[in-house]
């Protein structure tokens, strides 16, 4: 979440940046400042009253020791009166602090200066393209037909077991999924990331820490009896590993990677690119997370973008990189680059990765700090990116490489899959 001192010192900039993100409830900025003023006033009143209590309490002992019992009792009565005043002030202060916090978390992160204006995905800025879009035979088919032909994925069985959006991978399809997960993890490990296998459910504090709550509760599956949330991405448990921690500046950057299934309700997405693997409720993904020194986060962002780009190049997939406009960014992001791969059979671009810098927005919620030698603890910056999400990658690998004699696979997957093609 944003920091109140920054809002106070940069109110006009905050309003300008919120407008770039097309955030309408800008009145919350004034509410935050007014609540902070009230908090300061109540804190001062409480502290001054407590100081009086402490001072008068010391005098009571002196008066009693001098035999001045009546004066001592009068002083005691004055102390009791002040203590009675402290209770309501403390209650009002606690209530004000809670209201301030609840109001502050309604403000999204501020977009970075290089984020382009715009309200819709059509206004995102293409940064560059890579790879070659294949020319398929006239009888080429989309991945859901290939999945049926080669018995790779059973969408109807998933619907029977659970419901729509929960495909069952089988035979060569299950093996290809496992091969890609292993390759993605090894690729990340070879580039300096440390692997974790985190839980698939998180508590409310963890979901709040990365910004899923209170913004995206409608998109998450909620185990209500235990108040746990199924993770929408490994970003949530990985980043929370360092919640409430103070790390040494020499420990930075912290690079983490992990494979998890991801669970998303995708409420409101029905009818939009939902065929086959294009949009599902459960999918596998390998994630990247970095916790870095604030002076190094944009350098880390460029590094992560280059890392994902190199991974896509190794899979020989045509891709493009988009810098998202203000209106298409997530609530918590300061800047996001989307990677899309081209589905030759469907003739459309499909998003397969987002790489984002959150600056201090997440780390302020989680109190992830670092301490320089003899220095005061400061907030780190956090970043994350998909490396990669499996469903649409698999869809494009299948579609773009299809031939009459089978589906040749990218060379980097051969040793993981145990063969050079799906036959």
TrEMBL record:
It is an enzyme of class 6 (ligase). One of its GO terms (molecular function) is ATP binding. The keyword Protein biosynthesis applies. One of its GO terms (cellular component) is cytoplasm. L-serine binds at residues 233, 264, 287, 384. It catalyses: tRNA(Ser) + L-serine + ATP = L-seryl-tRNA(Ser) + AMP + diphosphate + H(+); tRNA(Sec) + L-serine + ATP = L-seryl-tRNA(Sec) + AMP + diphosphate + H(+). ATP binds at residues 264-266, 280-283, 351-354. Its EC number is 6.1.1.11. Belongs to the class-II aminoacyl-tRNA synthetase family. Type-1 seryl-tRNA synthetase subfamily. This is Serine--tRNA ligase. The gene is serS.
């Amino acid at each position: 979440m944003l920091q109140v001192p920054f809002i106070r010192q940069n109110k006009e900039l905050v309003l300008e940046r919120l407008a770039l993100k097309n955030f309408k409830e800008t009145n919350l900025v004034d509410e935050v400042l007014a609540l902070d003023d009230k908090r300061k006033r109540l804190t001062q009143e409480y502290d001054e009253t407590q100081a009086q209590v402490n001072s008068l309490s010391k005098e009571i002992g002196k008066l009693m020791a001098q035999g001045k019992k009546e004066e001592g009792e009068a002083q005691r009565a004055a102390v009791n009166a002040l203590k009675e005043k402290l209770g309501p002030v403390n209650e009002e202060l606690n209530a004000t602090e809670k209201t301030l916090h609840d109001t502050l978390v309604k403000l999204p992160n501020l977009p970075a200066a290089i984020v382009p204006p715009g309200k819709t995905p059509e206004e995102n800025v293409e940064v560059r393209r890579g790879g070659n879009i294949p020319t398929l035979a006239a009888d080429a088919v989309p991945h859901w037909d290939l999945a049926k032909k080669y018995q790779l994925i059973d969408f109807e069985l998933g619907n029977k077991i659970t419901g729509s959006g929960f495909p069952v991978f089988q035979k060569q399809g299950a093996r290809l999924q496992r091969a890609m997960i292993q390759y993605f993890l090894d690729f990340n490990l070879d580039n300096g990331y440390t692997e974790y296998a985190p839980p698939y459910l998180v508590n409310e504090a963890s979901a709040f820490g990365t910004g899923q709550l209170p913004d995206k509760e409608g998109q998450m599956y909620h185990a209500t009896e235990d108040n746990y949330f199924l993770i929408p991405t490994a970003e949530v448990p990985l980043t929370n590993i360092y919640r409430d921690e103070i790390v040494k500046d020499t420990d930075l950057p912290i690079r983490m990677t992990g494979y998890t299934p991801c669970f998303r309700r995708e409420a409101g997405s029905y009818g939009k690119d939902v065929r086959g693997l294009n949009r599902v409720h459960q999918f596998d993904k390998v994630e990247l997370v970095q916790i870095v020194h604030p002076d190094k986060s944009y350098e880390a962002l460029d590094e992560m973008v280059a890392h994902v780009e190199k991974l896509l190049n190794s899979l020989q997939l045509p891709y493009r990189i988009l810098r998202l406009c203000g209106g298409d960014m997530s609530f918590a992001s300061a800047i996001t680059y989307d990677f899309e791969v081209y589905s030759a059979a469907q003739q459309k671009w499909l998003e397969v990765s987002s790489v984002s810098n959150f600056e201090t927005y997440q780390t302020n919620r989680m109190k992830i700090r670092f301490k320089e030698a003899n220095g005061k603890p400061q907030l780190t910056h956090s970043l994350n990116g998909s490396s990669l999400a499996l469903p649409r990658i698999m869809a494009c690998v299948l579609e773009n490489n299809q031939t009459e004699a089978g589906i040749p696979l990218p060379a980097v997957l051969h040793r993981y899959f145990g063969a050079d093609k799906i036959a």
